[in-house]
Structure to design on (141 residues):
C-alpha cells in the first residue's frame, strides 16, 4: 500500500509540474489586433528556453518569409523559424534571451512567465522592460 501511495504522489507531482510549465504549444495572439496568428512550440534545449513557429493560422501568410530579418534568419520561412532564443529561468520568470518579430525583423530582449497554467505572458522590450510590448499566448491541447 505504501508503494502505491508513493507512486500516486510521484505521478500527481509530475502531472502538476508539467501543467505548470512553459514547455508546450501556444497560440499566439497579436497584441495590436487581438487576432490569433500562429502556433508556437516552446521547448528546452541545453537548459535554455526556445520557441519556434510550427503553424501559421493566417492563410495569407502561410508561405511568408522573414524578408526584414538579418543574419541566418534573412529570407527564411516563418514556418519553422525560431523566434525565442536562449531564455534562462529566473525565479518564476524566464529572461536574458531574445525574441524575434518576423513582421519587422527586429530582435528584442524577452521575458516570459506563466499567468496561469494555460496563459503565457511574453514581454519584448528594448533596453529595460518599461519600453516594450506584451502579448498573451494561450496553451494548445
Amino acid at each position: 500500500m505504501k508503494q502505491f501511495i508513493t507512486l500516486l504522489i510521484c505521478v500527481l507531482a509530475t502531472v502538476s509540474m508539467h501543467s505548470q510549465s512553459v514547455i508546450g504549444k501556444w497560440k499566439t495572439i497579436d497584441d495590436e489586433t487581438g487576432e490569433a496568428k500562429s502556433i508556437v512550440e516552446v521547448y528546452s534545449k541545453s537548459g535554455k528556453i526556445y520557441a519556434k513557429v510550427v503553424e501559421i493560422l493566417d492563410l495569407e501568410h502561410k508561405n511568408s518569409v522573414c524578408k526584414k530579418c538579418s543574419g541566418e534568419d534573412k529570407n527564411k520561412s516563418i514556418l519553422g523559424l525560431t523566434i525565442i532564443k536562449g531564455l534562462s529561468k529566473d525565479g518564476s520568470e524566464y529572461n536574458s534571451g531574445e525574441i524575434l518579430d518576423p513582421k519587422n525583423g527586429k530582435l528584442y530582449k524577452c521575458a516570459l512567465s506563466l499567468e496561469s497554467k494555460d496563459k503565457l505572458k511574453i514581454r519584448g522590450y528594448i533596453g529595460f522592460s518599461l519600453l516594450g510590448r506584451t502579448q498573451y499566448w494561450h496553451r494548445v491541447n
